[in-house]
Amino acid sequence: MLRALALGVVMCAAVPGAGAADDADWTGKTVRLKVDVKLGTKFNGGLVREGAALPKGKTFVVKSDAGGFLELVDQTGFIFRSEAEVVAEKEKGPDTRELWVYEGGWFARKKDGSWYEVNEENYRRQKSLSFREVKRTAEFVELYDANRKVSVRLGAGAMDARWDADGPNAVWKPLYKGRWQTPTP
């Protein structure tokens, strides 16, 4: 125990707010932090708080909801669910999802609202792939490439695709693992 304190590691032994009244899954929802927190690693039903510090009032999209624990998009570690609150739709502000990255490439939104994909293959050919945005929800942004007749859904952890040739009720198939990233100016 002294060693843990010497390292500055704080262990929360119980899950605050476990069994809260709102049992709905928060995955894909926007949450606001109610307190200043440090991200943690799950350990014996609690969190070892050794990750990045996040300020009270900051909003995040929930990547996964494991009951009393939340994993946030673009963050490494967990917080307790009781340390956040779901943001009402009207409070969310503008949707800033405009760059989705995966190993070997990315999708980016242009100022005119259209999208393009760059990956190793089309970079060598010096030609990006063009898409138009057709749907935007809390869970995904759906794009369509009219030339290749393919739809893609960019989500918090994966990209799914379906092809027109497979019919109007085609199943969405996982294609890449990736994530939303904040563009650097």
Which structural category do the helix and sheet elements fall into?
mainly beta
Strand/helix succession:
HEEEEEEEEEEEHEEEEE
**Residue ranges: pLDDT <50 for 5 or more in a row?**
1-21
Q: What is the correct CATH architecture of the largest domain?
A: Roll
Q: Which fold name fills CATH's third level, the topology of the largest domain?
A: SH3 type barrels
| Highest-level CATH class of the largest domain | Mainly Beta
Strand order across the largest sheet = 9-10-11-12-13-14-15-16
State the helical fraction: under 10%
Structure description:
The protein is mostly beta strands. It folds into 2 domains: 89 residues, SH3 type barrels; 82 residues. The strands form 3 sheets. It has an 8-stranded antiparallel β-barrel with strand order 9-10-11-12-13-14-15-16.
